[in-house]
């Protein structure tokens, strides 16, 4: 087999790093906190504050800070914190409990979810399954929108006692991962407080497909879309963007900017050289591919000469080639190295995670769009794990949808357009591709059958408003091309 390598067309320019980048997020959070305090002090009358973030911007840290600051205000007695799913609520509860104390933070959860709560969260919070279990000391109550907004509780929240605003059970409602909460779910919790603060990544996939608008009476309204989109343009809403991301390598920043192209500015706290991958001795095409990934720049490997696939997004021959690429890397062992940062966000020492002793986040995650494709990838993971006796946490497979909100050192993904004959609403979804490309802290390898450029050149023109509502969230061909321009490109020709 032969391989041809082409560097990315898009290059990093005018980016701030380290403290210069991190201070931008602190300043944005300060503006959001100031807007919150003005409402609490009756000096402003807006009822929504939206803190918009790109993937990996440290939005949960900003939310914890906003909650803690709100509780210091004399006119804020109790707040609610909600999200769509328990997997979002639980870690946030742990962070708030660690910050504010277990007596102050109450996790309000269904009885059948008690066993799902991690031990470190249980030790940091008070857990309640009913209103009578919520202690008088609780000033923060967390729960999913399904729990907090359940019909049973809507007339019973008053038993918690009055708060500063007088007629609502909470002074502020914080919504984490706000762009994953559909409007019809937000409607069940909106009245819990006079002020809602939404924090989240605008590129996340919504939990319910919002591509079609079922509301015939008003084309501007769709109950299945992310709730902030119904309020962003209103005078009563304050919208602020976090201008820096913590997760990616500096070399990945052009890719992030391609997704969040309407941002006034997007910088990266990690500077050049802050993250790297130490590779074992490798040869040939395998060496070329992994050395490209190890630079931290996103890498696209297109393979020509493969047998036919079962379907465009169920491609065992493509996974077979991936297995051949992975085996020498995993057999030789590798390390993910990150710069530690001091109180001023400057590099100060290093953290090394070795594949022989992985940490909490998986080192390599293989992402695909369909469950059957992930099942095939999971079988490959099991084969490699058994054959090479890999420790738990080195290699994992998941659907893109299930992996949003998660991070890993190296992402290996099947490009949604691989093998496709046209662009459609599924393979061109903004959120699905954005989540795929923004999970990795050290390296991103995208796999595809050859022909992506030809597919996009031949694709019919179609609208695409990925960050605007209402309208389709699928990406037009020009946006796909702009994203691909940020990738190092490798073309692998298999021998007949």
Automatic annotation (TrEMBL):
SUPFAM superfamilies on file: P-loop containing nucleoside triphosphate hydrolases (SSF52540)
Database matches in InterPro entries: P-loop_NTPase
Protein name, UniProt field: AAA domain-containing protein
Species annotation: Pseudonocardia ammonioxydans
């Amino acid at each position: 087999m032969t391989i041809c390598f082409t560097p990315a067309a898009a290059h990093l320019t005018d980016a701030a790093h380290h403290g210069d980048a991190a201070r931008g997020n602190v300043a944005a959070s300060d503006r959001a906190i100031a807007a919150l305090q003005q409402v609490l002090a009756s000096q402003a009358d807006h009822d929504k504050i939206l803190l918009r973030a790109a993937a990996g911007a440290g939005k949960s840290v900003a939310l914890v800070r906003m909650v803690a600051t709100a509780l210091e205000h004399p006119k804020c007695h109790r707040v609610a914190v909600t999200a769509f799913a328990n997997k979002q609520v639980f870690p946030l509860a742990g962070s708030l409990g660690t910050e504010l104390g277990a007596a102050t933070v109450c996790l309000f959860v269904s009885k059948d979810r008690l066993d799902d709560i991690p031990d470190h969260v249980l030790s940091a919070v008070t857990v309640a399954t009913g209103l009578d279990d919520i202690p008088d000391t609780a000033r923060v109550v967390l729960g999913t929108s399904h729990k907090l907004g359940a019909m049973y509780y809507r007339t019973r929240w008053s038993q918690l006692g009055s708060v500063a605003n007088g007629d609502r059970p909470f002074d502020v409602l914080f919504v984490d991962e706000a762009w994953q909460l559909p409007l019809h779910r937000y409607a069940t919790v909106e009245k819990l407080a006079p002020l809602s603060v939404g924090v989240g990544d605008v590129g996340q996939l919504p939990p319910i497909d919002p591509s079609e608008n079922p509301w015939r009476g008003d084309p501007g309204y769709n109950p299945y879309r992310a709730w902030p989109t119904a309020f962003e343009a209103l005078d009563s809403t304050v919208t602020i963007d976090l201008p820096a991301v913590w997760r990616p390598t500096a070399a990945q920043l052009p890719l992030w900017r391609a997704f969040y192209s309407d941002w006034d500015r997007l910088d990266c706290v990690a500077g050049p050289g802050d993250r790297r991958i130490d590779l074992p001795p490798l040869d040939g095409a395998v060496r070329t591919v992994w050395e490209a990934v190890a630079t931290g720049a996103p890498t696209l490997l297109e393979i020509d000469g493969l047998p036919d696939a079962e379907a465009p997004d169920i491609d065992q021959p493509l996974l077979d080639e991936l297995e051949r690429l992975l085996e020498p890397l995993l057999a030789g062992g590798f390390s993910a190295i990150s710069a530690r940062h001091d109180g001023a966000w400057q590099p100060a020492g290093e953290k090394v995670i070795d594949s022989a002793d992985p940490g909490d986040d998986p080192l390599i995650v293989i992402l695909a769009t369909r469950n059957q494709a992930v099942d095939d990838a999971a079988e490959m993971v099991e084969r490699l794990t058994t054959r090479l006796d890999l420790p738990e946490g080195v290699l994992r497979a998941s659907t893109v949808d299930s992996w949003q909100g998660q991070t890993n050192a190296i992402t290996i993904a099947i490009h949604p357009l691989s093998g496709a004959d046209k662009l459609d609403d599924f393979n061109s979804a903004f959120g699905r591709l954005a989540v795929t490309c923004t999970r990795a802290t050290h390296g991103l390898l995208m796999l595809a059958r050859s022909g992506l450029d030809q597919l996009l050149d031949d694709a019919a023109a179609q609208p695409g408003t990925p960050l605007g509502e209402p309208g389709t969230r699928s990406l037009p061909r020009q946006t796909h091309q702009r994203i691909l321009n940020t990738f190092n490109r490798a073309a692998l020709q298999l021998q007949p």
